[in-house]
Amino acid sequence: STQLTPMLSFLMESSPTPIYQRITRGYRQALEQYNHQVVYIEPSQLGSFELALNYLVEAIANPNLDYFIVFDNSPLSTFYLEESDCFVFEKFQKKLVFIHHDNIWSNLVDPRLMVAWRKVRDRSIHFCLESKNFLDLRMLGFEQVYPILHGSEFKKIAPPENYTHEVSFVGHVLPDLQPIFAEYQHLPFSHLIAADFWSRLVSLDNKID
Question: Which of 50, 103, 118, 126 lies deepest, with the highest CB count within 10 Å?
Fold first, then answer.
């Protein structure tokens, strides 16, 4: 078709984590290649967390924005505003696009998050990496839910000419779990989750240093 796609305006936030920075940049570049406008907020370049948060809230009020893309690992977009009794993304009155590159239940420590998703479900779309999450949200009454591939690169990358190893491990092991366990130890059954993790770690066929 020779019909041109109308230019849209997207708001998105980077992440403090390098892997998710790459993912958000990939989305930004893909949208800009189709001549869409992207307001890309990088909190680390805005000084303090409070300054960055205020900047994002002001950006959300821009009537020229069409979509707000919310990533699970973007701390400002998913920050809870106590004075307003809502999450930051709830303030955006147009279309919300949630990109879940992780299991959604790992991010639902705050039960208010599911309530907020339900409040905005008529104007939101959810893309889930985990097929079970896709089914979960559909079962819970969310209609605009779709599976997504965990790709942060939108162009094929040529393989290296020579491989240095026959096996490649894709993923990561958390560097220090003790602070995480300490943060969530007040939750019911948190000790069972910690015990389950350590039992899996020590029973691996190949030990991890």
Answer: 126
